[in-house]
Design a protein that fits this description.
Blueprint (H helix, E strand, L loop, with lengths): L3 H11 L1 H15 L14 E4 L2 E4 L5 H11 L3 E4 L8 E4 L8 H4 L9 H4 L21 H5 L10 H9 L2 H6 L5 H4 L16 H16 L2 H8 L6 H4 L6 H7 L2 H5 L38 H10 L15 H34 L2
Helix pairs in contact: 1-2
Bound molecules: heme C (HEC) (7 copies).
C-alpha cells in the first residue's frame, strides 16, 4: 500500500460502502493502519515524493543554546557577575515547539542561519528587532533544485492576490508559512488527503477564525466564517473535504498550490464546479495524486469517475432523489388523507 490517500480516493467512488468497511479491515489485517506521522512526531524520517531520507540532526546542540530559553514557558537567567538567578515568563509568541521545529522543512537549520548571531548574547540588543529577515525567494529563487515548486510564479501570483493588494506590508509569505513549523503537505505522497486539507485550512483560519491575528492587520471586525458560508450545505463536512483555496484561489496550470486569492465576489459558489465529471478539484485538490498517480498506479484505477468531488451521481443525485421521494410521499400522504377524511365526512 504505497499511497493510502490515492487508494482511498479511487476506491471511494466506485464502491463507497464496500470501501468504508473494507479499508479499515484491510489495514487492520495488514497491521499497518494508514495513520501518518502527526506533525511534530520525531520520526527521524522525512518522506516527500516517496523518497525516505534519514535525518541527521547536526545542529541540535547549537540550537539548544537558544532553545534552553525559547522552548520554555519560563526563562532562567543569571546576569554576569551575579549568582542571583532571575526567573520570568517567556512571551508566548517567542516559545518554540522543538518537536514541530525538527519536523519542519527547515529542520536542519541553525537558529542563527536566519537570525543574527548577535542573538547569542542575552539580554538581546534592542536593534536586533529590526534585523532584515530573508524572504523565501532570497534562498529559493533561481535555484534549479527547487524549480518544481516554481517559487517565482508563486511570488507573482501572491502579488496578484487580495492579501497583497490590500496589505502588502502586513501579510507576507511568512504569514501563511510559519517561520519555524512550515512543513510540506500537498506534495506528501504518504499522507492522507484529509490531513492536507486540515493543515492547509488551519493556515487560513489562523487569521480568518482568529480575531487577534485578523484585527491586528485589518483594523475591522473579523466576519465569522461559519456565518459567511451558511449557504454551503453541510458546511462542516465541506470544510473537511475541500480546502479554502479550492473556492478562493484561481487555478494555475503551473502551480500545484494556487496562490492567487481572489476577491470574495469571485469565489466559487456553484455546486457543479466540483460536483461534476470535470470537477475543478482535478486541477487543484487532486492534482498531485492524479499527476503522480498516473505513473504510480495502473490507469484503470484513475479515471473520470473516481474523484470524490465529482460524485455527482451519488452525492447530489442522492439529495435530489430524497427530494423527489419526499415529494412523492407528500403527494401520496395528501391523497390518502383526503380519501380518509372524505370517507369520514360522508354521513
Ligand atoms: C537567556 C535566555 C535567552 C537565550 C539564551 C536566547 N534568548 Fe532570544 N529571547 C529571550 C527573551 C526573554 C526574549 C523576549 C524579548 C526580550 O526580552 O528581548 C527573546 C527574544 C528573541 C527574539 C525576538 C526578538 C523580538 O523582539 O522580535 C528572537 C528572534 C530571539 N530571541 C532569538 C534568539 C536566538 C536565535 C537565540 C540563540 C542564538 C536566542 N534568542 C537565545 C531569551 C533568550
Ligand atoms: C528559516 C528561517 C528561520 C529559522 C531557521 C529560525 N527562525 Fe525564528 N523567525 C524567522 C522569521 C522569518 C521570523 C519572523 C516571523 C514573522 O514575521 O512572522 C522569526 C521569528 C522568531 C521569533 C519571534 C517570534 C515572534 O512571533 O515575534 C523568535 C523568538 C525566533 N524566531 C526564534 C528562533 C529560534 C530560537 C530558532 C532556532 C530554534 C529560530 N528562530 C529559527 C525565521 C527563522
Ligand atoms: C535562509 C534560506 C531559506 C529561507 C529564507 C527559506 N528557505 Fe526553504 N529551504 C532552504 C533550504 C536550504 C532547504 C533544504 C532543507 C533540507 O532539506 O535540508 C529548504 C527547504 C524547503 C522546502 C522543502 C523542499 C523539499 O524538497 O522538501 C520547502 C517547501 C521550502 N523550503 C519552502 C520555503 C518557503 C515557502 C519559504 C518562505 C516562507 C522558505 N522556504 C524560506 C532555505 C531557505
Ligand atoms: C494566504 C496564505 C499563503 C501565502 C501568503 C503564501 N502561501 Fe504558499 N502555500 C499556502 C498553502 C495553504 C500551501 C499548501 C501547503 C501544503 O499543503 O503543502 C502553500 C504551499 C506553498 C509551497 C509548496 C507548493 C508545492 O508545490 O508543494 C510553496 C513553495 C509556497 N507555498 C511558497 C510561497 C511563497 C514563496 C509565498 C510568498 C510569495 C507564499 N507561499 C505565500 C498558503 C500561502
Ligand atoms: C495573516 C492573516 C491572514 C491569513 C493567514 C489569511 N488571510 Fe485572508 N485576509 C486577511 C485580511 C486581513 C484580509 C482583508 C480583509 C479586508 O480588509 O477586507 C483578508 C481577505 C481575504 C479574502 C477577501 C475577502 C474580500 O473582502 O474580498 C479572502 C477570500 C481570503 N482572505 C481568503 C483567505 C484564504 C483562502 C487564506 C488561506 C489560504 C487566507 N485568506 C489566509 C488575513 C489573512
Ligand atoms: C465551496 C466554496 C468555498 C469554500 C470551501 C470556502 N469558501 Fe469562503 N467564500 C465562498 C464564497 C462563494 C464567498 C462569498 C460569499 C458571499 O459573498 O455571500 C466566500 C466568502 C469568504 C470570505 C469573505 C467574507 C466576508 O464577507 O468578508 C472569507 C474571508 C472567506 N470566504 C474565507 C474562507 C476560508 C478561510 C475558508 C476555509 C476554511 C473558506 N472561505 C472556504 C466560497 C467558499
Ligand atoms: C470546492 C468544491 C465543492 C463545491 C463548490 C461544493 N461541494 Fe459539495 N462536496 C465536495 C466534496 C469534496 C464533498 C465530499 C464528498 C465525500 O465526503 O464523499 C462534498 C460533499 C457534499 C455533500 C454530501 C455531504 C455529506 O455529508 O456527505 C452534499 C449534499 C454536497 N456536497 C452538496 C453541495 C451543494 C448543494 C453545493 C453548492 C451549494 C456544493 N456541494 C458545493 C465539494 C464541493
Amino acid at each position: 500500500m504505497k499511497n493510502p490517500a490515492l487508494f482511498k480516493i479511487s476506491i471511494l467512488d466506485d464502491n463507497l460502502h464496500f470501501a468504508r468497511v473494507m479499508i479499515p479491515l484491510l489495514f487492520l489485517l495488514a497491521g499497518t493502519a494508514p495513520i501518518n506521522a502527526q506533525e511534530g512526531e520525531p520520526t527521524g524520517q522525512r518522506t516527500t515524493e516517496g523518497e525516505t531520507v534519514e535525518k541527521k540532526f547536526t545542529n541540535k546542540e547549537e540550537n539548544a543554546l537558544c532553545l534552553k530559553c525559547h522552548a520554555n514557558k519560563y526563562v532562567r537567567f543569571t546576569p554576569e557577575g551575579s549568582d542571583q538567578p532571575y526567573i520570568f515568563k517567556m512571551y508566548s509568541d517567542c516559545i518554540i515547539d522543538t518537536t514541530k521545529y525538527y519536523a519542519s522543512n527547515h529542520w536542519n537549520f541553525k537558529c542563527v542561519d536566519c537570525h543574527s548571531s548577535d542573538y547569542e548574547t542575552y539580554p538581546h540588543l534592542a536593534g536586533l528587532r529590526f534585523e532584515y529577515m530573508a524572504t523565501c525567494l532570497d534562498c529559493h529563487g533561481d535555484d534549479p533544485e527547487y524549480a518544481k515548486f516554481h517559487f517565482e510564479k508563486i511570488q507573482e501570483q501572491y502579488e496578484a492576490s487580495v492579501h497583497f493588494s490590500k496589505y502588502s506590508n502586513e501579510i507576507s509569505c511568512w504569514s501563511c508559512h510559519n517561520s519555524h513549523y512550515y512543513k510540506i503537505n500537498a506534495r506528501n505522497r504518504d499522507q492522507d488527503i484529509k490531513m492536507t486539507i486540515a493543515y492547509d485550512n488551519a493556515i487560513c483560519l489562523g487569521c480568518h477564525a482568529n480575531t487577534d491575528n485578523f484585527e491586528m492587520i485589518a483594523e475591522r471586525l473579523n466576519p465569522d466564517v461559519t456565518t459567511t458560508h451558511e449557504w454551503l450545505p453541510n458546511q462542516a463536512n465541506h470544510f473537511k473535504s475541500v480546502r479554502c483555496i479550492e473556492c478562493h484561489a484561481e487555478i494555475n496550470d503551473t502551480l500545484l498550490v494556487a496562490h492567487k486569492i481572489l476577491p470574495k465576489e469571485q469565489a466559487v459558489k456553484k455546486c457543479v464546479e466540483c460536483h461534476s465529471s470535470d470537477s475543478r478539484l482535478k486541477a487543484s485538490l487532486y492534482k498531485y495524486q492524479l499527476e503522480e498517480g498516473a505513473s504510480l498506479v495502473k490507469d484503470d484505477m484513475i479515471g473520470d469517475a473516481v474523484l470524490i468531488g465529482s460524485r455527482r451521481s451519488t452525492t447530489v443525485n442522492l439529495l435530489s432523489n430524497i427530494l423527489i421521494l419526499a415529494t412523492v410521499l407528500g403527494i401520496l400522504g395528501h391523497w390518502s388523507l383526503r380519501i380518509i377524511t372524505r370517507k369520514k365526512t360522508k354521513p
